[in-house]
Amino acid sequence: MAEADGGIRRLVLAHGRDRARAMVQPEQRPLVDIAAQVLSDDNGKIGISYSGFCLTSLPHKRLPDDQPWEKRGHRVTLLVEPGRMKRGYGPAKMVGVPYGARARMILLYLQTQAVRTGSREVELGRSLHDWLGRMGLAWGGETGKALREQAARIAACSLKFFWEGEDASGWEAGRFVRSGLRFHNYSGDERQSDLWEDRVVLDEAFYDALRQHPVPLREAALRELADRSASLDLYIWLAYRLHNLSGPTPVRWAALREQFGTTYSELRFFRRDFPKMLSPAVSAYPEARVELEEDGVVLHPSPPPVSARVVSIGSPKARRTLPPKTGG
Predict the structure, then answer these.
(1) What is the pTM of this model?
(2) CB neighbours of 276 closer than 8 A, spacing ≥ 6?
(3) At a CB cut-off of 8 Å and minimum separation 6, what does 51 contact?
(4) ∠ CA 307-48-233 to the nearest 5 degrees?
(5) Cα separation of 299 and 256, whole Å?
(6) Is 93 helix (H, G, I), strand (E, B) or coil?
(7) How far apart are CA 135 and CA 230, in angstroms?
(8) Please, are residues 163 and 75 in contact by the beta-carbon 8 Å criterion?
(9) Residues 283, 285, 289, 293: is their CA dihedral positive or negative?
(10) CA dihedral in degrees (16, 17, 22, 28; nearest 10)?
(11) Which of 70, 105, 213, 288 is exposed most, by the fewest CB atoms within 10 A?
(12) Which helix (DSSP H) or strand (DSSP E) does residue 83 occupy?
């Protein structure tokens, strides 16, 4: 067996970033940087994801605008269907499903703020602009264009989770958001926080499920993986799974491909590329113990990425300690 990150974290802890960079191959230096940034983070800020997104995910690349997305994970399936959006006086146009890292970062912000405030009304404006800045997503140019496009897709699409097993539950097809999440068209306006409407309202069913099953994540790790959608999905999956395990758990290539490699036509190509996706995720999760082997990966019980998992819900006086999740 081989460690998924090649022992990068131990090198950083033992020798520091600069010396560790000099001790590894050039292609491993970005992993050293990821591990060093997360290990040196003293802010302790967290992000939140709904548990369903830990076991499924959005597409990484653009689909035809009329094509739905179905993604199967461990005992859960996500179905996202495109919707229509009307602008001006013209006919409503089909808007495809959200995809890629930008869509994931917008959704992570919405989920994090909703759980922190205990409200499905999430303020945008300066708060969103600041959060995206912390994620390294500078406003303007191609980044701003990509964010606007993904926001429109999130606002237009509908989603449904199908759960399996004794605790199976789901909801009627709803949306990520019920209203809001549109940009004002302030051409040349440098007040970047004003490009968003004041607030967005999450779909009630989605918000209720999120409150019942939130998964805390390390904000520093999200920042380091903000441009790596595949690694981001793997990090969120590991954050959900590892601390629930009672012993070493093998996951075979077929299962890994079903969840993380459905776009690969052949398993051998997925096996070739998977370590490149996994290494950044494990580097961003210093506590994770994951080993690559010939048949797939072996997951070992590991501490969660956020040790003090206390999240404010509702009023400042109402605080809830997030319990360990089971299954998946």
Answers:
(1) 0.85
(2) none
(3) 213, 214, 215, 240, 325, 328
(4) 95
(5) 12
(6) strand
(7) 16
(8) yes
(9) negative
(10) 130
(11) 70
(12) strand 83-85
Owner of token pair 């912000």: 109
Q: 137 is written with which tokens?
A: 């997503």
pLDDT by residue, tens only, the chain of 328 residues: 678 877 898 999 999 999 999 999 999 999 999 999 999 988 888 999 999 899 999 999 999 999 999 998 878 889 999 988 877 677 888 999 999 999 999 899 999 999 999 999 888 777 777 888 888 886 677 887 888 888 889 888 888 888 876 555 555 546 677 766 654 443 334 444 444 456 788 888 888 889 988 999 999 999 999 999 999 999 999 999 999 999 999 999 999 999 899 889 899 999 999 999 999 999 999 899 999 999 999 999 999 998 744 444 443 433 444 433 434 4
Q: Rounded to whole angstroms, how far apart are CA atoms 31 and 167?
A: 38
Structure-token match 């461990």, residue found: 74
